[in-house]
Design a protein that fits this description.
The structure is a homodimer.
Chain A (H helix, E strand, L loop, with lengths): L3 H8 L3 H8 L7 H14 L5 H8 L4 E6 L5 H16 L3 E6 L4 H13 L4 E4 L7 H8 L4 E4 L10 E5 L1 H13 L5 E5 L5 H16 L9 E3 L4 H13 L6 E4 L2 H13 L9 E5 L13 E4 L2 H16 L7 E4 L1 E3 L16
Parallel strand pairs in A: 1-2, 1-3, 3-4, 4-5, 5-11, 6-7, 6-8, 8-9, 9-10
Antiparallel strand pairs in A: 10-12
Helix pairs in contact in A: 1-2, 1-3, 5-12, 8-9, 10-11
The first copy, chain A, binds a DNA duplex through helix 2 and helix 4.
Chain lengths: 338, 338
DNA sequence: CGCGTCGATGTAATCGATTCCACAAGGAGG
DNA sequence: CCTCCTTGTGGAATCGATTACATCGACGCG
């Protein structure tokens, strides 16, 4: 592959001049510029990004470590992150942690070794030593969706409390009184917050959330299935199951179907995170929709602000309830958009 | 960030010795090794991958350019690619082309600039000049899922012909005679092949595929919706719509639902690519399942073979039919697994 | 006892870019 | 006509690693 030296030789100038032409440095003669450009074209020369990064100490690359690529919420997030980054002149390298702290650490380490300019993380757990180190060390960092408490890093996320309150009101209006939740891992902020928001909302209606109605999931479909089976085995099963993410809702659907029961007649279902397929499931699933694209874009802007020396800001955007039929018919508040 | 020089100074040895310790070169004394390791630990030193890549001329990184991250088929593919690559000691950088040739070129160029060791591509079109160049030039390359005819690059893909034949037999048995297809872009091999396989299978049953029953889609949901609407507007609408990918099937579902029609009573639906949600849609969708994970792994192995100087092999794996209820009940051949 | 061999180590070249510094040529101003 | 800038250019240092080559003891063998 042709290097800058080859171009210099071909154009009959020094490598310094070639570099100046390529970087649009003002003091280059028209003549030299033309010859260099011609040489570049004829050799099909492309600057070696590795060498450039070594010299300039910047890669114009962002790292994004997400909890699970197979989760449509995160793929959508990843997509918007890449889009905004590209618009700002950065590339993105995605690391998929699969909800495993060890894999998350692997990717953080690899990205740091590559000297990415900044790191976007949606942490899988409460923070490994490596993660805390990374946060404290020089690399600019921003948390997205989830965060690690007590670490001084900007956070871009959605606040679901209002939407959860709307959801519980909706469920209460439909006559449901025994409400259960499939929680996410307690080590994640979203895992905790969604349970807390649910409990608070229940209290507003004088309902409580007994331990047997809290199932411990891990944001994966299988755990949703297991927890739902346990709910269905209770002497007094819940009337509603609220899954803290879309994959666990999928698992819940599996479990209900395996028993030959029907949603919402036998048991109602709602989910955190809205995805396109929820419109066409049987029945369409009532869900809390996050402004995913906006979150991704805001996260990139915050990170690039840090990288380029501007003060970054944490951002919190509201989520909203999308009512469908999985909790029963509710003609009073049909705010469904589909 | 500490460099190898700092480590050398701290350990009281030369940088060469540090490098030797880190690369497990045999001739280093126990004493020196211990001192270097101690220095590495105390400084929290991590080798700079950028500098190493420049010197060794290898990045231990693979590029993966896929047509659309939001398509669950491709995210699953991406996941298995990353997994296998990691097992073989490589990282993966994913570029999402969003079915846009210009974006595809952008990512190929960026990846080449970064001097990735090899490139995995699922081409969005028939091959831009850049793509053809890349294929001819030195960088090892493998096509996955789709390929570009006439280019000498190994291909790892699924053969859907057998499964399409099974599908058409299934449809014929159910009494369907007017079958339509929502095709993918003619510029992609999968776009063409699926139509050809469908037509061949129809011919075996003495049916033909008139032009009005071929809708031109682009593998995105919106196009599935538009094409389906056009089918429904025909004087004699088809009895079955076969979507050439899962997103267009989603769009078809949207269109059918918007008219207040029902699947499969008013019109039947089948899709190429099976995804988890198809089990829970209304009704569950009959689909052709590709061995996605195996494809991803085989593609990585083929690419790494090329990179490491072994002869790479093209791989073709069979897809299979998964019957569900979206085409009507067929007690005779219930090979559904769900 | 002298020489060849081997193990451990350091010096320095190298990868491909960017960029500081020196310098030459040419024009402006005194 | 002699300085003093300005503009264009090249030489060489630099980034952080790897690695070829040189060196220096120690050891074994004839």
């Amino acid at each position: 592959m042709a290097s800058i030296k080859d171009v210099a030789a071909e154009a009959g100038v020094s490598v310094a001049t070639v570099s100046r032409v390529l970087n649009e440095h003002p003091s280059v003669s028209e003549d030299a510029r033309a010859r260099v450009l011609a040489a570049v074209a004829s050799l099909g020369y492309r600057p070696n990004a590795v060498a450039r990064s070594l010299r300039t100490d910047q890669t114009r690359t962002l790292g994004l470590v997400i909890s699970d690529v197979l989760n449509p919420y995160f793929t959508e997030l990843a997509r918007s992150v890449e889009e905004e980054a590209r618009a700002l002149g950065y590339s993105v390298i995605i690391g998929n942690a699969d909800e495993r702290p060890d894999l998350q650490d692997h990717h953080v380490r690899t990205l740091l070794d590559r000297r990415i300019d900044g790191l976007l993380v949606s942490p899988t757990d409460g923070g490994s030593p490596l993660m805390l180190d990374a946060a404290r060390s020089g690399t600019p960092m921003v948390f997205v969706d989830r965060w690690i408490p007590g670490v001084d890093v900007p956070v871009v996320r959605a606040d679901g409390r209002g939407a959860v309150r709307d959801l519980v009101a909706h469920l209460h209006r439909l006559g449901h009184r025994r409400l259960a939740i499939i929680a996410g891992p307690a080590a994640t902020t979203t895992g905790q917050e969604r349970v807390a928001a649910f409990r608070e909302a229940l209290e507003e209606h004088g309902l409580d959330l007994p331990d047997r109605y809290i199932g411990q999931g891990d944001f994966q479909a299988d755990s949703g299935r297991r927890v739902t089976e346990r709910f269905l085995d209770l002497a007094e099963p819940p009337q509603v199951v609220f899954a803290a993410d879309n994959l666990m809702a999928l698992g819940a659907l599996d479990a209900v179907r395996a028993r030959g029961l029907r949603v919402p007649d036998d048991i109602a279902l709602a989910a955190f995170d809205d995805i396109r397929w929820f419109v066409h499931t049987d029945p369409p699933v009532t869900a809390i929709a996050q402004p995913t694209g906006e979150l991704g874009r805001a996260a990139v802007r915050a990170l690039v602000d840090r990288i380029e020396g501007r003060p970054p800001r944490s951002v919190t955007l509201p989520a909203r309830l999308v009512v469908r039929r999985s909790c029963g018919e509710d003609p009073a508040t049909n705010r469904s958009r589909s």
